[in-house]
Design goal:
454 residues, alpha+beta, Porin, 2 domains
Length: 454
């Protein structure tokens, strides 16, 4: 700015001379006014620079004397980067990939069971009971109830539907042979879920029996098979509609077409050649649910099953009505269960007999009732007590010759979570069986299980 002022002053005589030659004194006055304005702006800028320099000089000693910030104890950027690189390397070595580049998750449980049993051999154990309960005086340890599964997270399809998949296997194999650990398919499904409806194809429990008690002792064959739990994993197609009623209630309507397993029922060897091993069935289930507070929930669902068994040129009906429920009034208590009544339950995993021959060419479905109930007490986030029992009772008038009239089982277990994915459980169970024409069997079973979830 000083340089500019000097230039203007030196140039003033020449500028004034030219101004006098042209416009006279008025032009010279205009130049002088501009010069004064520039000088004023120059002084203002100079004052601002001085003020800024003074402010910087005042702050520099305080900044130099301020202590350095203390470390927070967390990882530095370099440390976090190193951890991320290691994790990327680990995933590159252990990841599960899919040919279609969709996310796949490995799931399952490594389950160790040490067990002790006492009592007589259960008749028809091949059909209605886990081999761990067959006795007599059975004891041992096994890993064959371990489960391995894959879950698939698929793409979004037309209408906003989300595709997911699941396949689950165990090593139960041919459980008639204690040393046979061959893999066996348990469950599998492909599901498409929209906001208020869904479609599933796969292999699952019957639609009218979606729940079961919690047990780490009975996994290869679910708990209460033959004692009120219709459990067979059957191929099926399901469709459901979901609708909310207000903010805390809703209904779910489901329908399924499934393939029954008729060979699960007891039948005379003379008619084995004529038995259709599988038959189509229609099932429906209608659930109402309601929630309250932070933990309260109620679910109740009636259902039905309709199918026919074809044997010896005859058609034997299977008609079942059911209701299942969940009631959790508070965090520390939960009641779940199922009840069913009707005829010919064996094709879904119920207690045989499913049908009997009263005459050479006349078959009758075996009628009865069954169900189960479980009380759960989550004492803490780690400790839970479960008490459960189930039964199936067949009508004596429908049983011809030797057979099982009633199977009643009750049990209790305690489950402790050692860590987020490590469970330890101890269970005691008793199975009481009433035979026709007369007889009574009692089987006791004690189990200690350790499960590692992954």
């Amino acid at each position: 700015m000083r340089r500019l002022t000097m230039v203007l002053i030196l140039a003033l005589p020449a500028a004034g001379a030219r101004a006098e030659d042209t416009s006279g004194g008025d032009s010279l006055k205009a130049v002088l006014r501009r010069l004064d304005k520039l000088e004023q702006e120059n002084r203002a800028l100079s004052d601002e620079v001085k003020q800024l320099r003074a402010e910087v000089s005042r702050l520099e000693p305080a900044a130099a004397a301020a202590p350095a910030p203390e470390p927070t104890g967390g990882p530095t950027v370099e440390e976090r980067l190193a951890v991320a690189e290691r994790r990327i390397d680990e995933q590159a070595q252990t990841k599960v990939g899919a040919a279609e580049k969709l996310p796949v998750t490995l799931t399952g449980m490594i389950l160790f069971n040490g067990f002790l049993g006492s009592g007589a051999t259960v008749p028809g154990a091949t059909y209605n009971h886990s081999p761990l309960l067959t006795g007599p005086e059975s004891s041992g340890a096994t890993l064959r109830q371990s489960i391995v599964g894959l879950s698939f997270d698929g793409p979004e399809i037309l209408g906003g539907g989300k595709v997911t998949g699941l396949v689950e296997m165990d090593f139960f194999g041919n459980y008639a042979a204690p040393d046979n650990y061959s893999p066996r398919l348990r469950r599998g499904e492909i599901s498409i879920d929209w906001e208020d409806r869904g479609l599933m194809v796969g292999q699952e429990k019957p639609l009218i029996s979606p729940r079961q008690p919690f047990s780490l002792a009975e996994v290869g064959t679910p708990p209460l098979d033959g004692s009120g739990n219709l459990w067979l994993w059957l191929p099926q197609v399901r469709y459901e509609e979901r609708h909310k009623i207000g903010a805390n209630s809703g209904i779910k309507a489901q329908a399924a077409v499934l393939a029954t397993d008729e060979s699960y029922a007891y039948y005379p060897p003379a008619v084995e050649y004529s038995l259709a091993g599988t038959r189509p069935a229609l099932e429906g289930r209608f659930e109402y649910w309601h929630t309250w507070g932070a933990d309260g929930r109620l679910e109740i669902a009636p259902g039905f099953h309709v199918s026919d068994t074809h044997v010896a040129g005859l058609s034997v009906p299977s008609r079942i009505g059911s209701v299942d429920w969940l009631f959790r009034p508070a965090r520390w208590f939960e009641d779940t269960g199922t009840f069913f009544t009707g005829e010919n339950f064996a094709s879904l995993g119920g207690l045989p007999d499913g049908f009997t021959f009263l005459e050479p060419w006349s078959a009758r479905p075996v009628r009865g009732t069954g169900g189960w109930n479980q009380f759960s007490f989550p004492v803490t986030s780690r400790l839970t007590f479960n008490l459960w029992g189930g039964w199936q009772a067949n009508k004596a008038v429908d049983i011809v010759g030797p057979g099982i009239l009633t199977d009643f089982t009750y049990a209790g277990n305690v489950v402790y979570r050692l860590g987020p994915n490590v469970l330890v459980s101890a269970e005691a169970l008793q199975d009481r069986i009433l035979l026709a024409p007369r007889g009574h069997l009692i089987v006791n079973h004690y189990d200690l299980a350790i499960g590692y979830l992954f």
